[in-house]
Amino acid sequence: MAYAALLSALQALRKATQQDHLYNLSTIKHQITILDEKLCFLQDFLENDPPAGGIATDSLEGRIREAAYQAEDIVDFHVQNPLVPVTVRRSIYQDFQNVVDEVVSIVQQVVVIKESRKEIKALQLSDHTYGDAPIGKTAMVGFDDELMEIKNQLCGGSTNVKVVSLVGMAGIGKTTLATNVFCDPCVEYHFHVRAWTAVTQDHRRSNILRGLLHSMAENSSPGSEQVDELVYKSLKGRRYLVVLDDMWSTEAWDDVKMIFPDDHNGSRIIVTTRLVDVAVYANSSAPFHQMRFLNEEQSWELLRGKVFGEERRCPRELEGTGRWIARNCRGLPLSIIVVAGLLKVDRRKHQWENIGRDVSLAVTASRDEEEHLPTEILLLSYNHLPHHLKPCFLSMGGFPEDYQIPVFQLIAMWVAEGFLRPIRSKSLEQVAEAYLEDLVKRSLVLVTMNRSNGKPRFCSIHDLLRDLCIKRGRFERFLHPMNGIQESMKQKRRLWFSKCVEWFHFRNACSSPARSVFCCSYNDEVLIGFSHLKILHILEVNFEYFPIHILQFLHLKFLAFASGFIRYSTLPPSLPKLENLQSLIVGSSVKFSSHEYRLVVPLPIWEMPQLRHLVFLNITLSPASFLSPVLENLQTLSRVRNFSFTREAIERIPNLKRLKGMYTGRSSLYQLGNLIYLHKLETLNLCFVPTAAVRFGVPLGVKKLTLRGCEIPWEDVTAGIGCLPNLQVLKLKCLSGVGEEWEAVEGGFPVLRFLLMERLDLRRWVAEATHFPRLERLVIRHCSRLESVPCGIGEIATLQMMEVDHCTPSAADSATEILEEQLDLGNDALQVRVLPLISNQF
Known about the structure:
Elements: H1 2-16, H2 20-23, H3 26-48, H4 55-80, H5 86-89, H6 91-123, H7 144-155, E1 162-167, H8 174-182, H9 185-190, E2 193-198, H10 205-215, H11 224-235, E3 240-247, H12 250-256, E4 268-273, H13 276-282, E5 289-290, H14 296-308, H15 316-328, H16 333-345, H17 349-357, H18 359-364, H19 374-383, H20 390-395, E6 405-406, H21 407-417, H22 428-441, E7 446-450, E8 456-460, H23 463-475, E9 480-482, E10 494-497, E11 516-519, H24 524-527, E12 535-538, E13 558-561, E14 583-586, H25 594-598, E15 613-619, E16 636-641, H26 647-651, E17 658-664, E18 683-689, E19 704-708, E20 712-713, H27 714-719, E21 729-733, E22 737-738, E23 741-743, E24 754-758, E25 764-766, E26 777-781, E27 801-805, H28 809-824, E28 831-835
Parallel strand pairs: 1-4, 1-5, 2-3, 3-4, 9-10, 10-11, 11-12, 12-13, 13-14, 14-15, 15-16, 16-17, 17-18, 18-19, 19-21, 20-22, 21-24, 23-25, 24-26, 26-27, 27-28
Antiparallel strand pairs: 6-8, 7-8
Helix pairs in contact: 1-3, 1-4, 3-6, 4-6, 10-11, 14-15, 14-16, 15-17, 21-22
């Protein structure tokens, strides 16, 4: 992965400029300047003028990658070893010069490539094979509702030309659904003329239009100046259906949209695409159709039909295995169809079981019905990615199958890896969020759970895409799965150890060049030789104590114990030895008594200048003083205990965005009123044990506020919290509000979108629609005294969901009445769930 290597090398070079013992050498300073300039040129080339695919491209990117790795290694060695003998340090000049010579040679090659492209474009042929229109329906399971929905959009509604977009990942059935719609007798009867063409990634306007002519049986061979006119005349005055299959860019739509006449006769255009942005661009006035995965029963039905034909009779001894295989296809029709072809050839049970154990391997090692490798179909999506997204996508191959990836951890890892190009006025985390959003829009990443503010909380990738990440990552020398069978760690920068790896195969490993390690099992003896390690992501591993030997990895930037936990959850006070650490993230659900918490030694985070995110179950921080340095980078402090927010502390964390704190005893000791001076704070979560009346400050910029046990009178909730101008999410838990009546007022909660009320002693709630004008979701749980939900809540125009869980029967009845009233008024967008008293959803 040349692009990721360039970013990492540039970071290392710029770090070298901060090292006096290295940068003060004038000859080295000159070489670093040259390298920085040339590597930036190559970065710009990959971003804005990337080479076409092929062996020559792979060779060029391989040269770029290796030269960047060499530059990074030289800097890392000399930065890490400032006290090496002078005779050794003198070699740095020659080392740098060798890299400079190689990079200059690469730049010369790139210049030649860029100049020769002008000639190549002039010689390119304009003709190619057109995508033929489908000749009939294809087998389709699980899309009956979608088929009817699309048919209704085509044959009804507005008389203006309308674009219907089908969006989803490769192999999910976009073309199959479009084909069945296109060939449906009712659709065929409704339209005077139908046309179909495949757009392809390297589209040309003339080829798209020639494809449409070809599918309409127009046998003429017009010149490029006539093809526009012929297509226009073929459609003019007639009700037409045009399918533009597999569109990859908004430019392709711009090239052809003016050719389609609008005679106000109900003509329609279907666009299939993997890219949300393309779908929205083609028709921003209507929602696109997001293709969904098949459920388990639909997957089995499709598999059974492909293996056993129309009769669908599966021998009883094979059905259990067949259903297991169908489930392992993860709802992707492409996987099911390819696997069915393998099962049909050999119907012995043990052979089916072998396929079921690794469906992804079976799919990618086989050919589908049209003799296209499924991997190549998916590879189109990867090849279409801009260079800055490729390392982010490939890094997701380091997570296990079906793994729910915490988005917060993923973003922090991308930041530490150096995959992100800084953008002015945006933090690196905001850049990473935009990258992830782009991958989601390209149908490569799935959002599996959202936060209460609508942002993604967990994401995942389909098994076939994960397999693509691993294979492509290995091919590009980006990510290397270590299987333990004669595996060498030489020249491998990112390693992935699975659960089943046999660590004894690596016991003799030493001086590994690895910078990043993903591991689903752990062996501290093997990792001792990883002196260059910067990223350590430990997945699904539990520890009794914090593994103290990790402190030997002095260059760590990112350390995460993702889905395991540390039983005796304390951080060593010597943690600041990791002075480069940016993120320490520990996922844990272990609970501790207050006695265990009192034993924790305070952590001196003020000695960790690079720290950005600290998420741990049990953090006691050393107090800040006027001598403590300012932590400019710190954005997240989660699960801190009894920390005193003195003015000195506030001044030393000026850019804090997320704070989660727990307090025991007298809260007045901790100066929580000073929280109002955290001007960058966006998320605040405060828990008080035991519950007590507490006073604290909330900054005006807070967007998400979670409170537990602070016993605020309801009138203060209205007058104080209700006036926060940016508050979008409010969670009131466990007596955070006290009193029998809460009377809201107009003008409060101006932008609140999510409200949770949980374990409150509230009896009477008085509110109207104008009191929560932007509310979208209301959740009420375990409010055992609440008499009713205010009827005015149902009149909030933006309200989409209301959930009443384990409340009084009268509260449940009032929620049901609100729903019925809204249905009578024609509002069928509101959903109401009453649990557990009423289990059905209206």
